[in-house]
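Moderator note: this is an archived Q&A kept for reference. The question asked for a predicted structure of one protein chain; the sequence and the answer are reproduced below.
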Amino acid sequence: MKKLALHWQILLGMAFGVIFALIMTQFAWGPEFISDWIKPFGNIFINSLKLIAVPLILASLIKGVSDLKDISKLSKMGGRTIGLYIVTTIIAVSLGLLIVNAIAPGKTISKETRNELLESYRGDADLKIADAAKQQETGPLQALEDLVPSNIFKAASDNGNMLQVIVFAIFFGIGLILIPEEQAAPVKKFFDGFNEVILKLIDIIMLAAPYGVFALLAALVVESPSTDLFKALGMYAFCVLLGLSLMIGVYVILVWIFTKKTPRFFINGISPAQLLAFSTSSSAATLPVTMERVEEHLGVDEDVTSFVLPIGATINMDGTSLYQAVAAVFIAQAFGMDLSFSTQLGIIATATLASIGSAAVPGAGMVMLVIVLAQAGIPEAGLALIFAIDRPLDMCRTTVNVTGDAAVSMIVAKSVDKLHDPETKNWDDHYTK
């Protein structure tokens, strides 16, 4: 029998976790058994995600920035590429925040359930309250000052200082670009290998995902048995899917405005890559197909695709960023937290920068979410609320990531006069008019 795909394993883990918990609640000793013998495995899984966050940021972000060495030759193309990727990511995060604040899925949770959640994580809440009180005493530019760490090892020891780690990684990557290539090569080679090791560690961690989800969901049902929590989870998924759908609409509009190519031409051209991205949940695995579709069916020259698309697979994670924004606010709402405007601006900044370091592999978005939650002061234990349906949403947001890469490559190609009508004899020619 063929082995089940990981996303099906995770969905089964979710279902079995809920069923197991419902059965165990029928026994007086059941809830205590789950808390003592099942929940710890869920905590171990979350800790493993938190464990890999700093190494993933350093490896992926330094590699991604240092790969931009070709900007010296293609400065015009490079500047526009990075600029467009940053703009589309900011649009995605802002769109996610707009939707989740308007629909407020976390606020559909009853007061009783919210109190249970707060009681379960009272220690985390007290720490956040103390941090908030301390922050009120700081000056207006303290947030800017906090971006630059005085000690990178100290910053890397606390996930709450992840923004400092991101700044250091970008700074380090820029340094690699500016020194002679022969001197940078050994360091670059080290981080290439380091990045591969981290990606393999993520693969290993994700093998435990079905069991982690089983433990998390079982504990969640026992600790918060109210069905309104699961209704809110459905609303959360709706918010993410709505945002991702609207983001694809944004790409279509941008392509139509800047390249004059019709929506049908663009979607038909990139749809095979979208389907592959949906099935693999990996921008990196989809990259060869994306490049083929963009070159052969969207009319982008190879000079552009070979530069723009590999960079996009590394640093352009619009779907992931949108999901992180929705997830962060949803978890905050579930815990009864009101996020200030400045905190949500911080989410935009952190999600945008974290997306640059997000590895193009399944499950990396969840690791990046740890960074966003920590930076916004939201209890990281809230991951338990959303992880059960993360894999199906991961498939959808990877589709958006790949679509964004293709859209940016077309716009960049048009700006440097390297976009032409595809040399095919099929439907493509009819939609370029």
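Archived answer notes: The domain at 6-431 is CATH 1.10.3860 (Proton glutamate symport protein).
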